[in-house]
Specification:
Helices cover 45% and strands 16% of the residues. The protein is an alpha/beta fold and 377 residues long. The protein has two domains: 189 residues, Glycogen Phosphorylase B (Rossmann fold, 3-Layer(aba) Sandwich), CATH 3.40.50.2000; 172 residues, Rossmann fold, CATH 3.40.50.2000. Helix 4 packs across helix 6. The longest helix is centred in the C-terminal third of the chain and has 18 residues.
């Protein structure tokens, strides 16, 4: 049995955390034994891992320099004795590299989800961080896994890593769970959020922050509110930008048609009641929520950034808009409202594309092959 320890900052409702849960669920339990280490805190998803019989250790580190926390991580690893340590997000990468420097042993694998913070950072702190990561990746890690080709290009342009250490594996989604064929209490859910059957509902799901840029959707809705469309807009998620977004909605005069909804553990019910899903981000890796929306046969509109451009064939299985262009976003929303048959055909093409390339069983098979190949070598 292969022992794998996943190290991650926390187990909140982010895409990286949700994908990890799905990956573990779809790897054979007869082949693997899993341990999760959360460096900083637990989160909503901890009980779901524990329900699967997976041990979760929440270290409670104060920051990356917390010596007591590092010692606790080291002790958990000593006790579990993993064959593979698989890290997610940069703090996990650095800490695992430091521990491996002290005592080498297991195979080290890192999944790289996003590099947007490095794209905009020009500080000395970020320069040092890049140099440290470059050293750690080259010296200690066996494989770096970008979740899309865009991130691979970013890694190669910013960090000196041999090409044979980089392998792109896309994120995946459980298409049997995120399926339009599953019966949902559609009307009841709409009523719960103050919507009726006549409302044309546009929505986005994600952390409320600068990168996700929900302001762009608000501006597009403001452009459309005078067209006498039965529009409603759902912005789902938690984050430090919520008050700013509520204020911006009021400034644009569209606060009556916008609903702000707290983060949801199960977003399937939200996706089910949407007529259009929008991902207005300034930067993306490969969005789990975008995959989920497409699997649900929703027509999607996303900004032409990062992995979105690898996932969406513009006008065929979704639509791409320039980042920051609220006018184009508004015009596509209007076009789909006026041409419902187009919305249906785009949604069906989206699901088919996900079934063929991003089903979690396909992705789990790739990880299974990778893990076993690494150990055999």
């Amino acid at each position: 049995m292969i022992r794998i320890c996943y190290i991650i900052p926390s187990l909140g409702l982010g895409g990286s955390e949700k994908f990890l849960l799905e990956l573990i669920k779809h790897l054979s339990t007869s082949d693997y034994n899993f341990q999760i280490i959360c460096l900083y805190k637990g989160g909503f998803l901890v009980p779901l891992f524990e329900e699967k019989g997976i041990s979760v250790c929440v270290v409670g580190m104060k920051n990356i320099y917390d010596i007591r926390g590092l010692i606790k991580v080291f002790k958990v690893l000593q006790s579990f004795n993993p064959d593979i340590i698989h890290t997610k997000l940069t703090h996990s990468d650095i800490i695992s590299g430091i521990i491996n420097f002290v005592k080498s042993g297991p195979v080290l694998v890192s999944t790289v989800e996003s590099y947007h913070e490095w794209e905009r950072a020009q500080t000395l702190k970020m320069f040092i961080k890049k140099q440290v990561l470059s050293l750690i990746y080259r010296k200690f890690y066996h494989v770096i896994i970008p979740v899309c080709n865009y991130i691979k290009q970013q890694i190669c342009s910013m960090i000196d890593i041999p090409d044979n250490k980089i392998k792109v594996i896309y994120n995946g989604v459980d298409t049997s769970f995120f399926s339009p064929n599953i019966s949902h209490p559609h009307k009841k859910i709409r009523n719960h959020f103050g919507l009726n059957e006549q409302d044309y509902v546009i929505g986005t799901i994600g952390r409320l922050n600068e990168v996700k840029n929900q302001t762009l959707l608000l501006e597009a809705i403001a452009h459309l509110q005078h067209n006498e469309l039965p529009l409603k807009c759902l912005i789902v998620g938690d984050g430090y930008k919520r008050k700013d977004l509520e204020k911006r909605a009021a400034e644009l005069g569209c606060e009556r048609i916008v609903r702000f909804i707290d983060a949801q553990r199960d977003v399937r019910n939200i996706l089910d009641i949407l007529d259009i899903f929008v991902l207005p981000s300034r930067a993306e890796g490969l969005s789990i929520t975008l995959l989920e929306a497409m699997a649900m046969e929703k027509p999607v509109i996303a900004t032409a950034v990062g992995g979105n451009q690898e996932l969406i064939r513009n006008g065929q299985n979704g639509f791409l808009v320039p980042p920051g262009d609220s006018n184009t976003l508004a015009s596509i929303i209007l076009h789909l409202f006026q041409h419902p048959h187009k919305a249906v055909s785009v949604g069906k093409a989206a699901r088919q594309y996900i079934l063929e390339h991003f089903d979690i069983n396909i992705i789990a098979h790739k990880y299974n092959t990778l893990y076993k190949t690494l150990l055999n070598n």
